[in-house]
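Pilot study result, target chain (217 residues):
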Amino acid sequence: MKILAIDTSTDYLSLAVTDGGKILGRFHRRIGRNHSSMLIPMIDSLLKKARLKLKDIGGFVVSIGPGSFTGLRIGVATVKGLALATGKPIVAVPTLDAVARNAGRFKGAICPVLDARKNKLYACIYESDGKVIKRRSKYLLVSAQDLLEKIKRYDKIFFLGDGTALLGKKAGKADWYPRAEVAARLGLEDFKKRKFVKAEDLEPLYIYSKECDIIGK
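Predicted structure:
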């Protein structure tokens, strides 16, 4: 099954076309805030390089966050439009799940941390035996102090993301950014289980706190 995967959750634009476990084409580049102008042209370019047309794609995977509000809205809106136009299914993948896979074969706790501004972090805790990664927490919006309290029971921790500085930690990998081919691989399992999201129900994964001005609480 050919999948088009899209990640617009950070200042990178990451796209991939896969067929099973094979990568037919990919694009992964820092573009700042230019997702709205570059996303559709780069999808078109990627499909052409893979010698495919949109009708050849069997389904779509989209990274739903948490992350950049604007980037996520652009990615989600684009996938909604493509799915409605083609009638093909959608699978949603949380961004932190994809980031955690950048820890490679590390054995221990893996903690992706993204800067959520206002001294808050988007984070999640995973455990890995070097082969299988399992999520052990909810997707969190927390202060650095609260996160350090949650992870103190772990002896070995691999931190990834632009929020590591707020923790006083060094990122375990410089290129931590979520990659579309990883999202495609994660999403493939949901395709097999037919765990689809309807286009009209697809929304970014926004995480709010009581201190977040957006919800006025």
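One observation from the pilot: Residues 109 and 154 are 7 Å apart (CA to CA). A full batch analysis is planned for the follow-on phase.
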